[in-house]
Amino acid sequence: MPSDTAPGPLADLLIHNASIYTVDASDSVAQAVAIANGRILAVGTLEHAERHCGPHTRRIDLQGRAVVPGFVDAHPHLDTVGLRLTKPSFGRPRRIGEVLDVIRAEVARRKPGEWIVCNPLAHEPDVFGYPAALAEGRWPSRHDLDTVSPDNPVYIEPPSLVAPGMAFANSAAIRLCGITGQSAVAPGVTIEVDAQGEPTGVFRDINFPKWLPVRDGAFRARESLFPAMPELSEAETLAAVAAGVRAFNQAGITTIYEGHGIPTGPQRAYMDLWARKQLTVRTYFVVSYPIPLYRNRDEGQRLIEQTARYAGGNGFGDDLLKFGGLGFSFDSAAAMGACLMRQPYVGAAGTPWHGVQLADDETFRDIVRRCAEAGLRVQVQCSGGAAIDKVLRTYEEVDRDIPIEGKRWTIQHCQFPTAENMAACRRLGVLPTTTTNFLWMYGSVYRKAFGEELAEQAIPFKSWLEAGVPVAQSTDGNPFEPMFAFWQLLARQDAVSGQPLGDPAQRLTRAQALRAYTLNGARTAFWDEVTGSLEPGKYADLVVLSQDIMQVPLDDIPKTKVLATLLGARPVHDSGLFD
Among 333, 328, 265, which Cα is nearest to 300's? Predict the structure, then answer.
């Protein structure tokens, strides 16, 4: 760290006349930051920063605007966000005709017979108001879709985290896939039929992962009800990841930790963008351990051995792209009443259960131990309370023989932890990532499935911090915009009721929220020494805002615009401040 008088490089950029929230150990607020070769030389008063400047230093006067470290999303699903941006979308349709207008426009620009695969009809939390939100009061049928697309097969995906998730297809898609009213389907899936027993084009799926197609990097057509649907091409996957990167740049996200695991297709896309020097979000991704391998020990072992060759320890790569360890799912989604809970509750099927456990205890313990023996970092999605208990118990059992402290194993989602869970994480050095966005989108589901008392305990950010555990904010990709997710850390609202959800004592201060959404996230990617705060020696990853989110009234925070995003001092989004 250069002193005021120590010789060293002169700054090539000085940013000043700003409120710069550093997220250093004291949560200091600075006036200026001096930068050289993409890294911070000095941050503090203008006088202090000027000592590192010379006649050729470029000076940017921000005229009192607020600057924060670039946001770090610790569970973003960037590739999924990109796919959402590149597939046809419906917004918030109010009549079936608006849905048909989108399909009609797609038909006009597609080749005859080309598949048209669309985003869900509506997204959470709006989708909970459908089909009543449509003027017709019903879902669109295949006959509706046929009027604008008689020849191109059309498929509208179900929302992946909604139960039931509704999907829709036209006659061409149904015919190509050989679907009848008697087609065999997975448990929890329904083909709606008319009075003649013919499919209406409306399909229901209460599962997660969905058995009905959700066309993403892990989708395999032959294993679904729609085997004729084309899988994503490399070009489509690359375009989606590139779109996600651009969207994150504009939103002020400079770093992501994809701890849930990335399938092979998106992995290749990230590496292609990196090679082309078009990757402008620092990306740490974890290799996905597919759920079917829980039932195939030999194939799973091959993946463990292969991944250990290039992604052991804290990962392989540079400060822009890094990959390390394996990512697992242990239970299903709390968002749809399918997570593994300590007490029985009424799930999406309307019957009491404890939820889904994707691997039995012994199988999971064996896999985790073999990962530890291979030197692989382990990251596990565990939403419900019983899932958190079992995963941390497994971590502790492995730790007795193969210490994991310092290896930054993680748990993701973890909506219903106990004080004992938090103490175990602190003891083992396990890092949790979760999101208050779930309260916004699924608070009504929590209340219905788990009851008011347990719903009030969900996602206790303040308790994690008070237990000495640096929990990290994430978005799960929906909504991915940091201005919303930062506000939701403070507001903790349920969208359906419009009211706060949970113990008010769990609300963070703005300084705590900013740290949870920057430096704590960087820690999950082993990048806390190079980004996540604005301190000398770190990259100049920062965001300039239209208003001061640390000072404005709470409900004004989501109205804040990102004026510029700098990655290593390079503008990757700019409204004109750095032109």
Answer: 328
| Mean pLDDT over the full length of the chain | 96
Report helix, strand or coil for 324: strand
Residue 146, burial from CB neighbour count under 10 angstroms (0-12, 13-18, 19+): middle
> Which three-class secondary structure state does DSSP give residue 368?
helix
Side-by-side strand order, sheet with 39-44: 39-44, 32-36, 13-16, 58-61
Q: Give the predicted TM-score (pTM) of the model.
A: 0.96
Q: Cβ distance 147 to 99 under 8 Å?
A: no
Residue 225 included in any domain: no
User: For helices 385-401 and 419-428, what crossing angle results, to 10°?
Assistant: 30
Pairwise CA distance, residues 417 & 409, whole Å: 17
Instruction: Please give the Cα distance from 341 to 363 (Å, whole number).
Output: 19
- In sequence order, the β-bridge partners of residue 256 are 73, 283
- Take residue 385 and report the two structure tokens written for it: 């309370």
Tokens standing for 417?
A: 């932890």
Q: Is the dihedral of CA 244, 247, 251, 252 positive or negative?
A: positive
**CA proximity to 19, closest of 560, 490, 544:** 544
Tell me: pLDDT of 556 over 60: yes
Shared-domain flag, residues 404 and 321: yes
Domain span holding position 515: 235-531
Report, as an integer, the average pLDDT of 376-382: 98
Cβ neighbours for 205, distance < 8 A, ≥ 6 positions apart: 158, 163, 164, 165, 167, 188, 189, 190, 211, 212
User: Per residue in 492-503, pLDDT tens?
Assistant: 999 999 999 888
- Same domain (yes/no): 313, 442: yes
Residues 289, 302, single domain; the answer is yes
Do 298 and 405 share a domain, yes or no? yes
If residue 341 lies in a helix (H) or strand (E), which one and from where to where?
A: none
On whether both 137 and 260 belong to a single domain, the answer is no
Residue-wise pLDDT tens digits, 423-458: 999 999 999 999 999 999 999 999 999 999 999 999
pLDDT digits (tens, 9 = 90+) for 102-154: 999 999 999 999 999 999 999 999 999 999 999 999 999 999 999 999 999 99
User: Is residue 548 pLDDT above 90, yes or no?
Assistant: yes
Number of structural domains (the chain) is 3
| Under 8 Å between Cβ of 75 and 380 | no
